[in-house]
Amino acid sequence: MFRVALWIVGPLAVLTLAALVWLWPSDGVSPSDNEAQEHNARITEIRSEPCAEGVPDDVNGCGQATVEIDEGSEAGSSVDVVLPSGPGAPVVDEGDAVVVIASEGPDGQIYSIVDHQRGLQLWLLGGVFVLILLLFGRWRGLAALFGLTVTFSVLLFFVVPAVLEGESPLLVAIVASAAITLVVLYLTHGLTLATTVAVLGTLASLALTGVLAMASVALLNLGGVTDDISTAVVSTYEIDMRGLLIASIVIGSVGVLDDVTVTQSATVAELAHANPGYRFRHLYGAASRVGRSHIASVVNTIVLAYAGSSLPLLVLIVANNNSLSDVVTTQLITQELVRSVVATTGLIAAVPMTTALAAFVIRNARPERAERGD
User: How far apart (Å, rounded) are the C-alpha atoms in residues 304 and 373?
Assistant: First the structure.
């Protein structure tokens, strides 16, 4: 039975690899010709001034700052910049490490402070994360770290460049999700029967999620352009934003689907090992009860994750005292609801599909293979 499962996964892996090669971007991402140059710099002096009449006092007040450029052809030189102002402007002080952009103006180059440097802090935070992961997970933690590296590599070096090159976002997302599933699950959980069942369950659930996403987006006439970022993307690049929306739903579902399918497959394997007399219906019933408990918490996690990312939007809605019916039917809210509903539906469907497949495969496997899913 293990060989049969591999005979099913094998062609899927070959097909995924062929699709990766076919869709792989040839030229990468070319920078825009009129892109402003960014430089790391440090604020050496701030000269505050009274704000002009009628100008509201901002977080940084009014005035200028002197910054010393740390890199590039201008390294070591000092330039004067206007203190950043407006919504979202970085709060700055003397000695801060900042990012400035240089753009061409009527009288030469104009420098502006756009952000703080966070490289060192991010490296420290990442180091703490890796240390905790390795201390607790040990070899499994190391495997998970490799899996995380694979996931980010696929997203950064395949998904984004391929979409920018004009490939179908949905097709790219399906291929990327399949590649991530195949590599990460086998890398983190080993080449076992239980892992193979989890891979098949994840791929089947992803296919269902993709179909539901396409149907929901078409039924509700969603265009995928709901904020400044998506507007900038569609204005700058020739990208199918509806396809990109569907792709984001599919890719966003991979992580939670992996969690559920691996849990269900491992649960069935452990039940079969602990209860050799259990038949298919016993394994399916017992594992399904575990799956229902898991789903109850994971569904809440998905909804809270989307609600947390949309918290500023929820604040704006409540502040404007809009009626619930008016709010829910707007494209922005409907799009987030579709993300939650489709991802949750695919997640729920993954439990019976994976559980049934695992119960059938593990129960019919040779005893030495069925034991603990090996």
Answer: 33
The CA–CA distances, whole Å, from 76 to 67, 116, 156, 166, 193 equal 10, 19, 33, 41, 60
Helices (H), ranges, the chain: 2-23, 119-154, 160-164, 169-189, 193-219, 228-236, 241-274, 280-309, 311-319, 324-328, 331-364, 367-370
User: Which neighbouring-strand residues pair with 63?
Assistant: 48
CATH 2.40.50 boundaries in the chain: 37-117
Q: What is the pTM of this model?
A: 0.79
78-122 confidence digits (pLDDT tens): 888 888 887 778 888 888 899 988 877 777 778 888 889 998 999
- Does the structure show a pLDDT above 90 at 131? yes
Residue type, 104: E
Measuring CA to CA, how many Å separate 125 from each of 130, 156, 250, 309? 9, 21, 29, 21
Question: Which DSSP state fits 191?
Answer: S
Q: Can you name the residues that pair with 111 across neighbouring β-strands?
A: 102
- Note whether 308 and 199 are within 8 A (CB): no
Condensed to tens digits (0 to 9), the pLDDT of residues 190-244 reads 888 888 999 999 999 999 999 999 999 999 988 888 777 777 787 778 788 888 8
One CATH from 3.40.50, 3.40.1440, 2.40.50, 3.90.1570 for 37-117: 2.40.50
- For residue 30, give both structure tokens: 């070319």
What order of strands is seen across the sheet that includes strand 37-49?
A: 78-82, 62-69, 37-49, 97-105, 108-116
pLDDT tens-digit readout, 5-52:
667 788 888 999 999 999 998 865 555 555 567 889 999 988 888 877
Q: Which helix (H) or strand (E) holds 113?
A: strand 108-116
